[in-house]
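Can't paste images in this forum, so I'm doing it all in text. The chain is below; anyone willing to post the predicted structure tokens underneath?
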Amino acid sequence: MLVVTLGDLLLDVIVRLREPLASGADAEAATLAAPGGQAANVAAWVAALGGQARCVARRGDDAAGVVLAAELQVRGVELVGPAAGTNGVVVSIVAPDGERTMASDRGTATGLEPDDLDPEWFACDCLHISGYALLASPIDDAARRAAELARSRGARVSIDLSAWTRIRAHGPERFREQLATLAPEVVFGNEGEWDELGLVSGMRIVKRGPHGFDVVRGGVTERCQARDTSVMDTTGAGDALAAGFLVGGPELALEAAARCVAQPGAMP
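Text version of the structure:
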């Protein structure tokens, strides 16, 4: 199975706090710099779970972009798309209980254009679009073109929503209209994102953190309970879940999410 993802390849700077932050003071922490970005994370997990993965992203031609491209290749992901400008960075602050808060600078990623896309990239089984791709131009137009190309080759389309704060700033109605245009068969999102966006057509995956996730289709809800595991870092858990679901359904989604939270960083 070949899954193509479209969105961001970013440098994740993960700060795991050993004590709470105090305004104007120091706090002890362990830090890690690693590849990340929603589209890149999903692609890496697809490859780790036995699928084939291709990530379509505009990355920097700076030192960070070069290193991140090599990291994806090591993980068995084919990376395609232009390299130009400054690569994006996400700083993830991970609390002692494993919950994380992110500060994002997407850098050159949002400059991906429809003309950058090679139609052959989208000869796949599934195209998975990062919801962040709908929040800026011209990458939103590139996402629409990618969906057209993938569908013309018989692929299904899935989307993972962006953070509820970004949906609110963008406008829920506008975001829903974009989703309607893309007409994804599957949409992933956590409870806060769904509360902000409201209902959309197609299968809905409601991510509930330590409680697992719900599969909602045709008015029927199936609860999938999370695996018991020791939580180190929740960064990327939703991306691992999405990859598992696309490759092997609910059980593999639960396994992938459990693997992700038990390790530092968003990628396997």
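The chain has a mean pLDDT of 94. DSSP finds eight helices and 13 strands in the chain.
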